[in-house]
Specification:
Chain B: This is Carbohydrate ABC transporter permease. The complex is a heterodimer. Chain A is mostly helical. Chain A contains 15 helices and no strands. Classes of the chains: A mainly alpha, B mainly alpha.
Chain lengths: 288, 279
Amino acid sequence: MSDPRRSLARALPVAPAVVLLLLFLAGPIAYCAYIAFTDLQLTGQAHSSFVGFANFRTAFGDEAFLNAVWLTLVFTVVSSLVGQNTLGLALAALMQRASKPVRTLTGGVVITAWVLPEVVAGFLLYAFFRKEGTLNAILDALHLPSQNWLYTLPILAVSFANVWRGTAFSMLVYSAALNEIPKEITEAAEVDGAGGPRRLWHITLPMIRRSIGTNLMLNTLQTLSVFGLIWVMTRGGPGNKSQTLPLFMYEQAFQNSMIGYGTAVALLLLLVGSVFSVMYMRLLRTEV
Amino acid sequence: MASTLATRRTGRRLAADTGLLVAAAAFALPLVWVILSSVDPQADLRVKAPDGITLDNFDAVLKPDITFTPLLNSLILCGGGTLLTVVCAALAAYPLSRFRSRLNRPFLLTILFATSLPITAIMVPVYALFVQVDLIDTMQGTILFFAASQLPFSIWLMKNFMDGVPKELEEAAWTDGASPMQSLVRIVLPLMGPGVAVVTVFSFVMMWGNFFVPFMLLLTPDQMPASVSINEFFGNRGMVAYGQLAAFSVIYSTPVILLYVLVARRLGGGFALGGAVKG
């Protein structure tokens, strides 16, 4: 430890990773923080100039941006906080009691949806929600009103698609957490006459609260950066009715050639992500 | 008392089984559609019994420009990226796991922080940067970025797996004069085979399915991996041949599903990843 040459030799294997991370991750983040304050455009401009907070002022006065913020919020709450999280917990809880073949089958199906490439998942759910798709076929069979989901409720359609694709992760995290609760505790409560909902609220949830925190953070971060799924299903449309922040950022930077403005939006997304990231680290604090 | 508890338990198992089967059926619908449509000569958008079984859809897409070139590109990009990620992560994890240093904690915290950053958000600046340093539209540029974006989580996983290999085994090798590099390659990595497999498969699966990174960093159609080409190819045709689209989806998804099954089998249940990231 006292010999600097020896510590240097020991640290040497870290070098390739550090170089890659600095060049391709830290570099772009720093560059992002820089061009967010310029008026850089995609083409036909020799010099970009520093414009201070102009991009951010534009953003907060831009209805399309506020629309994207709102949709991102809806998308995150519906698909991540409510959908994946609750459904994942419900599935994990049911799996604790179900018979093995059913457990294996359900796990297999849900995990397959998770492992599929993003674009394929997008196509499958596009087909499912289309006017001529499976969902409407089922609704017709049940004599329920059908509609063109991707036009009438696009943000809900993509949110459900994200639930379909992402629930497996929550299910795995919660299965691992529930397996660690000692059987005696739940059994004792059962003998004492505590019903299902009360057991869940007073015993199970407090015991897995760390996993809930971790899962919520990671789900939210994953959901904030969803691009391909929405792109394939709706391209953010119709109009901008399913345009979340990543799609808005892409449109501004490339279709409208406003790299500076697009990057300012990206920086905001990055800041929100960082806040969640720091919260996640605090949860894991004891493990490092 | 005991008997009522037992009957209640059986009842509950039935209820749980029913609930899970309903959920499984709902999750399975889109999967059933893609499989049935891929062999259906008259596929449309809803789940239905195929009008006969045919392999024509597969025949139609198994051509160089639709399937082989994009899959080969995917393989080069994801194979290259995964190799780079795993090698760099193993090297970086070793000193972090084995030697005490004041820098370990800040480094690991930074890594953990980077793990959860939304990579999507930095793609616009990465594009702008790649244009300036001439890495745009190159395979190597995309591979390097893939590796960098997957590194934080891989280092984190690799370090946790490495901590599970007892240090005593190496100490014997050190007294025999083995260098740290020799003991990493000859002793530690072989002992953490399943861990290395998890990191490898996880990185590969993430890259194989990634759409946004190659969509942004590659421009030439010949270089596009399957994740992007499938979208361009089918999206730009007025009338979509759903059967062919389904067949291509099946071909493109099979490798990652097989890889996942392989790793899940070896680790007994596939819950290792859930365990590795648990709080």
